[in-house]
Amino acid sequence: MQKGFANLTLKMLCPLAGTLLMTGCAEKKEKPLNIVFIMTDDHSYQTISAYGNSYINTPNIDRIGNEGVVFTNSFVANSISGPSRACIITGKHSHKNGYMNNIDCTFDGSQQTFPKLLQQAGYETALVGKWHLISEPTGFDYWNILIGQGEYYNPFFIDNGEKKQIEGYATTITTDIALDWLENKRNKEKPFCLMLHHKAPHRTWMPELCDLGAFDSLKIELPDNFFDTYEGRRAAAEQEMSIFKDMDLVYDLKMADKEYEVHSSYLEKWGRKIYEQDLTPEQKKVWDAYYDPIIADFKSQKLEGEALARWKYERYMRDYLSVIKSVDRNVGRVMDYLEQYNLLENTLVVYVSDQGFYMGEHGWFDKRFMYEESFRTPLLMRLPEGKKGIVDALVQNIDYAPTFLALAGVDVPDDIQGVSLLPLLRGEKQDLNRGALYYHFYEYPAEHAVKRHYGIRTPRYKLIHFYNDIDEWELYDLRNDPHEMNNIYEANFPLVDSLKHELRALQEQYDDSIRFVFP
């Protein structure tokens, strides 16, 4: 097992590089801006303090927004990992880029992507961390990716085709590799685009050892709709992403007791493998010192019903927030590096998640639904000498590709379906004159049993059609019902008719062949 870069510090990095960057500052400004795109997996906007949450302080992520823009109406086109990444890299909806689900799709690496277009424009491109698109990355001068979902501890990477295992914690290792590329591997005469993709905070929310217990004293309240009964919402009732029913005690919540008395579901064996085999003896010693007392206390309580649901929610939140603590710390390392070597003044820095995530709302974890918590994603962008503050325009992850191309002075191809956010970042416009967003989720039947659906979101309303083995419509007034508890579809036929026409127009605009038939 190869040792990681855990001891890499800015002091150890080549001092000559900083001097060269400082003396070449005037020349650097004449070049196109660099791009650092930091993406996490399943990071909810509810757990970023820039969005006003009360769970956790994320000063380093917040810094990007404080020195730039926080997008408060940022959404995805398909709320699941692989498809979302395909939308980002192509600037196209899933049905156009061909990667609609994580079950039977492989990304076609021969198609047009924004890294390829940046390469053609003279950029050096790099991808580090989670890829999750099956095929090997294309359009990158350097890539070093996790295998599949990746592991939190001692993960395997594929370094430009060579498989390596690195001892340590995935979030820190991924950042180490990215900083090493910035310092030692890139051509410093060229503008660059670095895509830094973390595994965290994807399920199973394994904290870094130094963060174990970081939130044990935090008082965590249940969301108001944690015990949602899903009245009038059949698709919501039939999912399998309930914290109480579907979150596994061993796999998800680390209750892998040495006596083998805690049993849950088929996921139990995977959980025990992770905690008993995948950690080194030194790591496991620290891990057990923290979790063994929690396991013993859990077993002694013999919880059932509502008490068990509350315990599972609190345990989930403490682990999830601890994973975010490491993410924020490593974002700080990147920002510190860029600042130390005078790169912040000519680099667009972006922080985003591949989609949102449920923090117990509706009693759930995971994503997939078009409901706000999974449809919405955090997006913070820092453009040198750009706008600072809040942007509430409707934006979507298909917009990133044209934004980066416009920033680089590259003509945006006509087949890209997103629009550039650059005018918003520069403060030249207040909105994109976009009346609504289109969403389409395809991965069913599959894990978590979320039905296939598509829909439209305007600034006030959301209309969703669940289809395939179901034919159900839902309508929400987001102004009066922001938590989407009351389906008003049956009582608003004039509004429904208007929104259906808008929905059909978007399906035609984006050339989605799956279109509903007007009654």
Report a brief summary of the structure.
The longest helix has 36 residues, at 305-340.
Spatial separation of the terminal alpha carbons: 62 Å
Mean pLDDT: 94
The CATH architecture of the largest domain would be 3-Layer(aba) Sandwich
CATH superfamily of the largest domain: Alkaline Phosphatase, subunit A
Helix count, DSSP H or I runs of 4 or more residues: 16
> The CATH topology of the largest domain is what?
Alkaline Phosphatase, subunit A
Percent of residues in helices comes to 25-40%
The figure for the number of domains is 3
Helix and strand composition category: alpha/beta
> How many whole angstroms does the radius of gyration measure?
23 Å
Strands across the major sheet, in which order? 1-8-7-6-5-9-2-10-11-3-12
* CATH class division of the largest domain: Alpha Beta
Low-confidence stretches: 3-29
**Main β-sheet description:** 11 strands, mixed
Number of strands: 17
* Binned strand content: 15-25%
Q: Outline, from the CA principal axes?
A: globular
Descriptive account of the structure:
With 519 residues, the chain is of the alpha/beta class. The protein has 3 domains: 322 residues, 3-Layer(aba) Sandwich (Alkaline Phosphatase, subunit A); 79 residues, no CATH class; 71 residues, 2-Layer Sandwich (Arylsulfatase, C-terminal domain), CATH 3.30.1120.10. It has 16 helices and 17 strands. It has an 11-stranded mixed β-sheet, sandwiched between helices. Strands 14-15-16-17 form a 4-stranded antiparallel β-sheet, with helices on one face. A hairpin with a 3-residue loop joins β15 and β16. The longest helix is centred in the middle third of the chain and has 36 residues. The N terminus is likely disordered.
